[in-house]
């Protein structure tokens, strides 16, 4: 990138403004996405579910990416980047509003419907924003830009579960005692109805914010990026390729992203319930998703500092997979009884508390650090050389987010069949698949392996 223009001929002012706007939307992605870590234990109680059933929260949310990613591609081509983003925000707002009848009737199926609709809106947003941020500047620094987006995303993931937990899980220990002492089914149902209705106000507020942001975006200037023009930069090697399936490194990238998103969601969405299963009070457990997000932010910051000056993005991906295997082994092999406490300040009430953290839970949180640079590294590697197929390739990569729908459900089944700790063995083969892509898969089918 030159002093005043980017590699796409965009002025530096427009470049910085565009990256800032997309950063705001990645914050929104994170805020909505990482609420699931609290919703899983919340709906498990409110709708009287077991662990396996509760993880359908993640399934309903993330399966939208698989079902809707390809249909969103022609919509995005018709609406353009900016209008497509606005439509995505409004679809998410509709999903938030579905939580109202879901809470009033305490119907798990309606909650899942609302989550699917929100996932659909996010699919449109992600299909637009990920390739945009990848190619708006030099490709060799794409992982750095995506890392900046990741910080915005995961910072939202730090605060979102804490805010929601302070509203819907306040005095949860008192409610649990009342439920245990409920004399009849009618009294228990009344308590659960009261609990379920706590989500109504926060989701109404989110719906209003999403509608307003969609309207605001219509008046914001964002430069268009012509992904079709990318074909000119990849030379003769791409001319004879007539299908997206002629790029094996892309297809393998989709597979790697499927398993990556699965382990990322497992690390962020199961950790609170895992802490509960180890008899950790919700006063401490509600912070565990935030710990995972904080460790991811640390990884992103290192990525921004090191990539590409000191560390190539492909080497960062290799290191991440090695750390992933090590931390996953730590999670399953560390005795659950090893617990340490640290003094902490409640981020909502500002009251002092003793945060209880089992060492095995800490290893799960550290998976966030291992995961941090996987998404930023795989995107530019997978899109390398696809040229005029960039939009369709991006849709396939977005479809890979379905890993977040499938693998947490597998985790839930393993947790019910064996234990919540043993279920983390699932992460090992996932990281090995990503490791193959990091070392070999990203070069398959490319001339000279680059």
Describe the structure.
With 450 residues, the chain is mainly α. The chain has a single domain (12-220, 246-449), classed as MFS general substrate transporter like domains (Growth Hormone, Chain: A, Up-down Bundle), CATH 1.20.1250.20. Helices cover 71% and strands 3% of the residues. A two-stranded antiparallel sheet has the order 1-2. Helix 6 (142-168) crosses helix 17. The protein is globular and about 70 Å long.
Jot down its keywords.
3% strand, two-stranded antiparallel sheet, mainly alpha, Growth Hormone, Chain: A
Outline:
With 450 residues, the chain is mainly α. It contains 20 helices and two strands. The protein has one domain: Growth Hormone, Chain: A.
Mean pLDDT: 86
Sheet/helix structural class: mainly alpha
CATH superfamily: MFS general substrate transporter like domains
Strand content: under 5%
What is the radius of gyration?
A: 22 Å
The CATH topology annotation reads as Growth Hormone, Chain: A
**Helix-strand string:** HHHHHHHHHHHHHHHEEHHHHH
Shape: globular
Taking the alpha carbons of the first and last residues, their distance comes to 21 Å
- Strand order, main sheet: write it out: 1-2
Instruction: Please mark out the parts with pLDDT under 50 across 5 or more consecutive residues, or reply none.
Output: 230-236
Largest β-sheet summary: 2 strands, antiparallel
Give the secondary structure arrangement, pairings included.
Blueprint: H1 12-33, H2 36-46, H3 51-54, H4 56-105, H5 108-135, H6 142-168, H7 172-181, H8 185-196, H9 200-217, H10 230-233, H11 248-269, H12 271-277, H13 282-285, H14 288-306, H15 313-333, E1 339-345, E2 352-358, H16 359-371, H17 374-383, H18 390-399, H19 403-417, H20 427-439
Antiparallel strand pairs: 1-2
């Amino acid at each position: 990138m030159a002093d005043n223009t980017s590699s796409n001929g965009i002025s530096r002012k427009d470049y910085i403004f565009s990256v800032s706007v997309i950063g705001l939307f990645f914050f929104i992605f994170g805020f909505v996405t990482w609420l699931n870590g609290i919703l899983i234990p919340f709906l498990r109680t409110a709708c009287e579910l077991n662990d396996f059933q509760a993880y359908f929260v993640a399934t309903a949310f993330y399966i939208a990416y698989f079902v809707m990613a390809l249909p969103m591609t022609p919509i995005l081509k018709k609406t353009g980047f900016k209008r497509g983003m606005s439509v995505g925000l409004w679809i998410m707002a509709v999903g938030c509003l579905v939580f109202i009848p879901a809470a009033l009737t305490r119907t798990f199926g309606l909650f899942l419907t609302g989550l699917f609709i929100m996932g659909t809106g996010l699919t449109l947003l992600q299909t637009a924003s990920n390739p945009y941020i990848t190619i708006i500047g030099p490709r060799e620094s794409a992982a750095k830009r995506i890392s900046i987006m990741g910080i915005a995303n995961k910072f939202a993931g730090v605060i979102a579960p804490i805010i929601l937990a302070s509203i819907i899980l306040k005095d949860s220990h008192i409610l649990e005692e009342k439920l245990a002492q409920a004399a009849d089914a009618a009294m228990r149902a009344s308590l659960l109805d009261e609990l379920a209705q706590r989500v109504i106000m926060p989701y109404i507020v989110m719906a209003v914010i999403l509608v307003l942001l969609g309207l605001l975006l219509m008046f914001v200037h964002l430069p268009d990026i012509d992904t079709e023009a990318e074909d000119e930069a990849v030379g003769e090697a791409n001319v004879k390729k007539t299908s997206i399936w002629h790029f094996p490194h892309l297809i393998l990238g989709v597979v790697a992203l499927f398993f990556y998103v699965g382990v990322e969601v497992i690390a962020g969405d199961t950790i609170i319930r895992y802490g509960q299963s180890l008899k950790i009070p919700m006063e401490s457990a509600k912070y565990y998703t935030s710990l995972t997000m904080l460790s991811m932010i640390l990884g992103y910051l290192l990525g921004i500092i090191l990539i590409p000056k000191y560390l190539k993005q492909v080497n960062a991906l290799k290191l991440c997979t090695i750390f992933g295997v090590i931390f996953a082994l730590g999670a399953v092999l560390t005795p659950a009884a090893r617990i340490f406490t640290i003094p902490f300040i409640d981020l909502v009430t500002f009251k002092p508390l003793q945060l209880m953290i089992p060492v095995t839970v800490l290893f799960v949180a550290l998976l966030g650090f291992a995961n941090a640079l996987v998404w930023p590294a795989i995107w530019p590697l997978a899109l390398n050389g696809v040229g005029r197929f960039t939009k369709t390739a991006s849709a396939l990569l977005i479809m890979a987010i379905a890993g977040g729908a499938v693998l947490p459900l597998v985790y839930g089944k393993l947790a019910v069949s064996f234990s919540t700790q043993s279920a983390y063995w699932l992460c090992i083969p996932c990281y090995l698949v990503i490791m193959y892509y990091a070392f070999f898969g990203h070069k398959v089918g490319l001339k000279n392996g680059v």
